[in-house]
Design a protein that fits this description.
alpha+beta, 53% helix, eight-stranded antiparallel β-sheet, Nuclear Transport Factor 2, Chain: A, 366 residues, elongated
């Protein structure tokens, strides 16, 4: 569990600021100068597919900032050789092609963010990694509760009883580490509990969703029907326009062309959403342009609303910059908790070994 938590804490601190850090590392691709007018999604997609005939644009990612480029996720067309990249960038104001990168291979500037994200959630080990991190998060959740029980003062209503629990003493290195472990865990316990709980939900949805459905039903996506790329006649612009006609106040975050299900999946933000990127999906049929389904947690069941809060709480984005900074601080505290726990365990282990040797020496002398 310690190994998993060390990886999760270190990578989690990065992911709190992932947009800012990736933007800094790859400014040539991501930073543009805003202008009064910009190209439409379809114009950008057309330029991309004309520049790379073997590429099929599957997702258009919009930015929350006016000085950031448009990101296109691409895949190789059926019957063509695999592409050496999976993401390309365009200046939406001038139409200039800014560059490309492969976010899935190697350790480079272009792939670092994806590498850290994969480490955080699944140790770069696929489905097994998700399960391992989910089980570690569950043990972490239980151990947090046990830690609170062990730290809880007998006379808990007295403020004086809490003072030694939430403070540290420097009488010895062992005492300092022990007190620091207990105090930092108690101070940040509410945040640690939320992070552990949301980690379980995000890594083990196959068990978590049925548990939620026991109390409240969850909305389900329709099955959809697979189509070929040449059958899709509805463009990204048309899908976006269909959603905006239904929700004029919507801010589109991304549009995913899902050929496996025969729809554009439009992810959008509405006022009051927990996630700054949005909580809502609309499915637009790729052949007819009709909206076949809309998923709005705010208008859904209690289970839908509960599930919509999990990821924003895990990243801290639900509370804006204060929440993100609090999650980053919790990541640092988790590193401290692991270091101090290892130190105090090693000291006690050495003490037990010394005591055992002394007992054996006494027995032998007798």
């Amino acid at each position: 569990m310690m190994a998993c938590l060390l990886i999760a804490a270190a990578t989690g601190i990065w992911l709190v600021f992932r947009q800012e850090l990736d933007r800094s590392l790859n400014s040539r691709l991501r930073v543009v100068t805003p202008a009064a007018t910009h190209l439409s999604e379809d114009e950008i997609v057309s330029r991309a597919e004309a520049a790379f005939p073997r590429a099929l644009v599957t997702l258009v990612q919009f930015s929350l900032r006016p000085d950031e480029s448009v990101s296109l996720t691409v895949a190789s067309r059926s019957g063509t050789a695999p592409l050496s990249f999976d993401r390309i960038y365009f200046n939406q104001y001038t139409g200039e092609f800014l560059g490309q990168r492969n976010t899935r291979k190697g350790i480079t500037r272009g792939s670092l963010d994806s590498l850290i994200l994969g480490l955080h959630f699944q140790l770069l080990a696929g489905a097994w990694g998700y399960s391992i991190m989910g089980v570690a998060a569950f043990i972490w959740l239980v151990s947090d509760v046990i830690g609170l029980v062990l730290s809880w003062p007998h006379v808990w209503l007295r403020i004086r009883s809490w003072k030694p629990i939430v403070s540290t003493r420097t009488s010895s290195s062992y005492r300092l580490n022990y007190d620091l472990h207990r105090a930092s865990g108690v101070w940040l316990l509410p945040v640690l509990l939320v992070l552990a709980f949301t980690s379980v939900s995000l890594n083990l949805p196959q068990y978590f969703r049925p548990a939620v459905e026991f109390f409240s039903p969850l909305s389900q996506r329709p099955p959809g029907t697979r189509i070929q790329a040449d059958e899709a006649v509805v463009t990204f612009d048309q899908a976006d326009a269909a959603v905006r006609r239904m929700f004029p106040e919507a801010r589109t975050d991304n549009i995913y062309r899902d050929l496996n299900h025969g729809w554009h999946s439009v992810y959008f933000h509405l006022p009051g959403d927990a996630n700054p990127q949005g909580d809502n999906f609309a499915l637009v049929d790729l052949k007819t342009g009709t909206i076949t389904d809309v998923m709005r947690p705010a208008q859904g069941t209690a289970g839908d609303r509960f599930m919509a809060w999990l990821y924003p709480l895990h990243t801290g984005s639900a509370l804006g910059w204060p929440g993100r900074l609090l999650v980053a601080l919790a990541g640092i505290v988790v590193l401290v908790l692991n270091a101090t726990a290892l130190y105090t365990w090693c000291v006690r282990w050495r003490m037990r070994r010394r005591a055992n040797r002394m007992r054996r020496a006494v027995v032998m002398t007798q």
